[in-house]
Fold:
Amino acid sequence: MNNAYPEYQSVNQKWAKEIPSHWRMERLKLVFGLRKETNNPVITDNILSLTAKQGVIPYAEKEGAGGNKPKADLTKYNICREGDLLVNNMNVVSGAAGVSRYTGCVSPVYYPLVLRHEDNVWYYHYIFRLVTFQRSLIGLGKGILMHESDNGTLTSVRMRISMDYLGNVLLPVPPRAEQDQIVRFLDWKVSEINKLIGIRRKEIQEFNQLKNTVITKTVTTGLKREEMCGTDNSYYRMIPKGWRITKTLRVLSQPLTDGPHTTPQLYEEGIPFVSAEAVSCGNGKIDFNHIRGFISQDFYEECCKKYVPKIDDIYMIKSGATTGRVSIVDTDRIFTIWSPLAVFRCNQEVMLPRFLFYALQALPYQQQVQDGWSYGTQQNIGMRVLEQLKLAYPDVTEQEKIACYLDDKCDMLDKAIQLTESKIKALQELKSTIISDAVTGKIDVRNVTVPEYEHVDDVVDDDSENNEETETDGEEA
Structure:
C-alpha cells in the first residue's frame, strides 16, 4: 500500500516538496473560479454557515450560539451551490473550508469556489483541511495578529486573505482517476481513524462524568456519613447538619469583576491576553497555550486599574458555549484576561479558594448558572446574577479536608484524561500524515482495494474556540 510512485518532480512548496512526475502544479485560480452570484434579487433564504465541527450547514442547524446574528437583508448575501468549496477568507488558516452539500446564501466573508474542470472537489477538500497546507497560507493574510502556541493551536485568527492572493496558491493536480481513488482511499482511512478517536473521546467523557459525580457528591454531602437536614432551597434540598447556604457574594472579599471589554491591539510578544479557551481547556488551570495574543505594557497598566490577576483567583466563563467552566490561578505569571471571564476572589476566613473552585463545578451550582442564562446572540450570565447564586458549605476546617480529598481524586482522573488525550493526538497526527502523503503522491494508492467500511465523520471538540466559526455570519470584514 505504501509504495512510492516511480518518479517525482520537485515543487518546493512549504507543505509539499515533490509530487509524482506525471502530476502538475496549478494556481488555484486555474483550478477554481469564484462564484460571483449575488442573492439580489433574493434567490434563497437558506443562510449557510461553516464550522469545523459540522462543516457547511444551514445556519438554523448550527450548534451553539457563537457568532453574530445574520443580516436581515438577504440581498447582502452571495450564493453558494451544492458542490462548491466554501472558504472563509478570515479563518482559512485554521481550517475554515469545506464542500457544501446545500444551495444557499453566504456572508461576503466566504468564497464559494467552483471547479473549472472535471476534477473531484473532495480531493481539494482534503488539501484545505490539511494543517500543513493551512499554515502555508499564513503569510498571505492581512488583519488582526494571530498567535500559534507551542502545541500548534492558532488563536486570535482574523487574517483576511484576498482572492487575488489565494488565487495564486499552487495546488497539486493528479489525473481525475487518481483524484477519485485518493478520495476513496482517504474516506476509508480517515473513517477508521475517526472511529478510534471517537472511542477515545467517549472515554474522556466518561472520565469527566465520573469527575463531576465525585465533585458534586463530596461538596454537597461531605466526606463522612453525616446527618443530613432538609432546606428550603430547591438546588440544595439536603445538606449535612452544621453546613450553611449563602449567596456567592457573601463568601467573596470583593464583588465579581472581569477584564477589559474591548480587544486591544495585539502583538507578537508582550503580556499574555488569555481567552475563555484558556479556562475551558486547562483542566482547572489556566492553559497558556490558548491566548488571544499579547498586549503592551501600557494596556496592561490600564487593565490593572480594574483587575490584577492573583494566585487563587477563580475564573468562570460567563458567555458563549462554555458558560460555567471554571479554572483557578496557580501561577504568579503576569497576564491579563478578556471580559467573558468573571473573577471570584475568596474571603478566606469564610471560604477557601480550593473549596470554592470545586463547589462552583458541582451540579447544584451549575444548574443555577444555566437557569440564570440570558440569551442574545449567545448564552450569557451577568456578574450581578452570579453573585446572588447560592452555595452550600461547611466550616473552613472541613473545607480544607474536602479540597485535599478532591485534589487527589481529580488529579488521578486528570492524568487518565491526559493519557487518553495523548492517544487522540497521536491518532490525529497519523491522520494528517496519511492525508498529506496521499494528496501529494508520497504514497501510491492507485492499486489499493478499498473494502466496505462504516463512514465516520471527523470528530471535533465541542468547546474549541478556534474550531468553531469565529467570523460574523452576516457582517463583511
Q: What stands out?
A: The two ends are 45 Å apart (CA to CA). Residues 176-221 form the longest helix (46 residues).
